[in-house]
Design a protein that fits this description.
The protein is an alpha/beta fold. The chain has a single domain, classed as NAD(P)-binding Rossmann-like Domain (Rossmann fold), CATH 3.40.50. It is 42% helix and 15% strand. The protein contains 14 helices and 12 strands. A 7-stranded parallel beta sheet has the order 3-2-1-4-5-6-10, sandwiched between helices. It has a 3-stranded mixed beta sheet with strand order 7-9-11. The protein has a two-stranded parallel ribbon with strand order 8-12. Helix 6 packs across helix 7 and helix 7 runs parallel beside helix 8.
Length: 326
């Protein structure tokens, strides 16, 4: 059961199924990217075959930016698709300061993220420190770090607190930086057994049916991060929490019912049934104080971002026919 409960900074966000997140380039799009002048410095995206990094890469390519990606497994089909899109590929891991530094050399900016879901929160902090140290070594002009909304609230959620440590180190480093802090992603509802459960007519969430949950569409994150990476000056030194919509589980179930063409009901999972301590702490936080994004202020200040509604996301997702939604 624990596999269902994911957060804005989760493993799925870091390295989701690459079939779904790596951009597919039409010939014209690929050509336009490859024609970018060699004098333009690339933007480095870490985790470019994952959920967040893939969204940022797609948004940058849509703006004909030169993109460099650091990947761990260069032989994967997802990496080949990056190359087909004109992305420069380098190999390394998030805890390898030397490899990070080499990938950052000459970059105009870096989009970075970390994950605790492979080796734990201590390993995540080590990743963050390696990234910050490498950026300092390479004199990176601007580092955008993707954290998680609520990390500054002293929540006691382990993977929130680990990101808070990295945020603090980054702020103290002297590097030009911006922190983007996503809320819960819409497509986390499909993680683990979620897609199959929705297909069976059940939306499992450990929240009361009338409790709003602030959520984010990955393309909205990608578009916002690309905007910051390409025009950093207004965002330097800022921490910006991101959400596209705030809907209750009852509203989510209603929207999913329309999207899938059959009734979907919300089933409130008891908190005590979530055995993973990190996920239990996260859902306790989301059931209590929760995220605090001022959606009106955020959306008004950034009218160029789509700010996808949950209703629109559900319609597009279940009309797409992708394997993850079946």
């Amino acid at each position: 059961m624990d596999r269902r409960w994911r957060s804005g900074g989760d493993r799925a966000a870091f390295e989701a199924d690459s079939k779904d997140v790596v951009p597919r380039c039409a010939a014209t799009a690929t050509t336009s990217v490859l024609m970018t002048t060699t004098a333009e410095s690339p933007i480095l995206v870490l985790g470019a075959t994952g959920g967040q990094g893939g969204a940022v890469t797609a948004a940058l390519l849509a703006r004909q930016s030169r993109v460099r990606a650091m990947v761990r497994r260069p032989g994967e089909p997802s990496v080949q698709r990056l190359r087909e899109c004109g992305v420069e590929v380098m190999v390394g891991s998030l805890d390898d300061r030397a490899a990070l530094g080499a990938a950052m050399e000459g970059a105009a900016a870096v989009f970075a993220l970390t994950t605790p879901f492979e080796a734990g929160v201590d390993a995540e902090v080590a990743q963050g420190r390696a990234i910050v140290a490498a950026a300092d070594d390479a004199r990176v002009p601007h580092l955008v770090f993707s954290s998680v909304a609520g990390a500054d609230q002293h929540t006691g959620v382990p993977h929130f607190d680990s990101k808070a440590v990295i945020e603090k180190d980054l702020a103290a480093s002297g590097l030009p930086y911006t922190i983007t802090a996503p809320t819960y992603f819409f497509d986390n509802a499909l993680g683990g057994e979620g897609a199959d459960r929705i297909a069976a007519g059940i939306l499992d969430l450990p929240l009361p049916p009338d409790r709003p949950l602030q959520q984010l569409a990955r393309p909205d994150l990608g578009a916002f991060a690309a905007k910051v990476l390409l025009d950093p000056k207004p965002y330097l030194g800022r921490r910006i929490e991101l959400a596209s919509d705030a809907v209750t589980p009852a509203q989510m179930a209603e929207a999913l019912s329309v999207a899938v063409g059959r009734p979907v009901r919300h089933q409130q999972t008891p908190l005590e049934s979530i055995r993973n301590p990190d996920m239990h702490a996260m859902w306790r936080f989301l059931s209590g104080p929760g995220y605090r994004v001022d959606l009106d202020v955020l959306h008004t200040a950034n009218p160029d971002i789509a700010w996808t509604s949950f209703v629109d996301w559900a319609q597009r997702t279940f009309e797409s026919g992708s394997r993850a939604m079946r």
